[in-house]
Every structure is written in C-alpha cells, then in structure tokens.
Amino acid sequence: MSSLSEKLMSQPAKAEGGSRIKQNSINVQDQKRIAAIKTAVLAEGDRIRAKYPILQHQDAIGMAILLFSMAGAALTGWAYLEGMLAWYVTIPVIAIFLSFTHELEHDLIHYMYFRKNKLMHNLMMALVWVARPSTVNPWLRRHLHLHHHKHSGTETDLEERAITNGERFTPLRLLMMLDLELSVALRIFQIPAKYRLKAIMRGAAGNFPLASAFWISFHAYVAYWAIEAAAWAVGYSVPWPAFVNAESVAIANTVAVLIFAPNLLRSFSINFISSNMHYFGDIEDGNFVQQCQVLNNKWFIIPHLFCFNFGSTHGIHHFVVRDPFYIRQMTAKKAHEVMRANGVRFNDLGTFKRANRWTMKEQASKEHGYQAA
Q1: How far is residue 204 from each of residues 7, 85, 188, 210, 369, measured CA to CA in Å?
Q2: pTM
Q3: Distance between CA 11 and CA 301 in Å, rounded?
Q4: What is the pLDDT of residues 302-361, one digit of tens each?
Q5: In whole angstroms, what is the distance from residue 335 CA to residue 275 CA?
Q6: Tell me: the pLDDT tens digits for 37-51?
Q7: Cα 185 to the center of its chain, rounded Å
Q8: Which residues in the chain land under pLDDT 50?
Q9: What is the rounded CA–CA span in Å between residue 60 and residue 58?
Q10: Counting beta carbons within 10 angstroms of the beta carbon of residue 327, is it exposed (0 to 12), middle (13 to 18) or buried (19 or more)?
C-alpha cells in the first residue's frame, strides 16, 4: 500500500457535521467560482431552514426516514408473500425504499444524524447496513469516503475506483457495476503482487459478515440456475444432493425476489450514476468545479428512481457538505443555477466515451491508483 493510503486508513475519522476538507491549491478562477457556489448554496439552505422550522429536527427526521424505508420494504415483501404483488412490482418497489437508506448511510458517514449520541448514531449505521446487506461495512467506508471528498477523481480515490470510475465504458464495466465482487475478482491481478494479499484481506474485512453472506449466496443461486439451464439445453438431469430439492429452490427464488434483485437493482443504479457523474484522472486535486457534473437529463430518470435523484444533487454536496440529502433536493433549483453559471458541467454525456476524463485526451484505464488498493 502506498504511504499516502496507509496514513489515510490508519487515521480515525473526525466527528464533525460540517466539512473539514482542506482546500488544495487550484487555479484562481475556479477558487472564485467555488466560493460563489458555496455562498449561494449555504444561503439557500439557511433560507429553507428558516422557512420550514421542522428541518431543525434533523436527528428525528433521519430516524423517521429510516423507519419508514425499512417498514415500506418489509410491507412490500409481506404483500408479495401473501400473493398481493407480482415479483416484477415487488422488486422495484423494495429497491426504491432501499434507495433512501443509501442516502441515510451517506449522511451518517458525515455525522449528520445523532452526532452527539454515539448509541443512536451507531444504531442507525447498523440498520442502514442491514437494510442493504450487499454493501461494505459503513464504518470502514467512512475512511474511504472522507478521502474521496478530499481527493475526488485522483488515483487514490479508492471509493470511486471500486465502482469502476475511470474504466473504459464496455459491457464488462456494466457487469462490474452490477456485481462488485466480480469486479474485484476481475481486477485483482491488476494490483501489484506485493499489495495483493493486503487488498484481499481489507476487502474481506469490509464485506464480513453481511456482504460476504449476500454475495456467496447470490453466486451460488446464479450458479445453480446456470447449471440447470445448461443441463436442460442438452437434455441432462443434474443429480443434486438431497438438500437441493423443490422446497429449497422455492425458498431461494423468494430470497431472490425480496433480497437479491432489489439490492442489485439499487446498487447498479447508484454505481452507474455515481461512477459517471464523477470525473477521474485529469482534474485538479481538490477542484470542486471539476470533480462532478450534474446528471439530470431525462434519459437518467429510471436509474435516478432507484438512487434518489443522486446524479442531480450529489454535486451540490461536494461544495456544501453540511446539508442532508433531503435538503439538497430542496436547494437544487437555486444550486443548479449558480453551478451552471460558474462552470459546473451539466449532462456531459461525452464522459462515457472518455472513461470519465475531464478532457478529450485519451488515457489508459489502468492507473497507479491500484497500488493504493
């Protein structure tokens, strides 16, 4: 592991609600643009808080959204089990409820809920992880995410690298965004041998126990149906062991509808949007104007449905960290106006051809950032 990343991973996160990012040295013009955007967004946030005093109860709002999301997903699952909902309705509805818990986890990483109450804060962290068992341990993700804010789009931004930011856009990249465990397996040998074991150990620690159980079970389920399909194609009957019977397969199919599919739909949507709204590789370190674009084109309506409009509002968060996700939605109209006026890009679809680079200059998709994995 590189010395920079070792230092990063060894330092505890600081429990502050606001941004503690130190501005790096960037060009003077963009410094002025950043200041203008921050000033406008902060003022709009203050205006909205003054207009709606209920927003002062941020801890209660966060917990209420979490309980609503988990209850909604559970009730949807119950309706499916009772035969009141078809599978093709159940999966997207649960995925929508889960999208709220992703936004809550992100806000929790920035200590936006129960900052002064460790018990309640950690309880919320645990619940948002249980709600999305395919994801990495949120306490470990915190270190990666805070580093992402400080050095977004650089080779040490491991969080964005993990969801394929900077890779050439191919069908394989789509598959990697759907299955991050497969993504790790496909890229593990691109990591220098001397760092490989440490990368595997860190990945295993981050996934244990929930994500490990999810991905092992999911791949076993896919393998079963792949073998069954191949056997059916050649007219062969697979001699499965006794525990693989009609009842266990029916249970597995139910788990696929209630857990596997909603989590994969939600995670693919957020990975697709996030990895393509962030720029990578040729931006000024710490330059918020260049870190993100705004993706609010109508073509992104479907993935946005399952990641709470992330591409439209996450760029605001890079300028002003303090506001939770629902306030970012409320400030978006004003924020977008000032962001557009100050050089932030909107719906730059060319990023799909440029492997998320800021400029048209071609760069190899393999970066030294793998050394930091």
Answers
A1: 20, 36, 13, 11, 20
A2: 0.89
A3: 39
A4: 999 999 999 999 999 999 999 999 999 999 999 999 999 999 999 999 999 999 999 976
A5: 21
A6: 999 999 999 999 999
A7: 19
A8: 1-23, 362-373
A9: 6
A10: buried
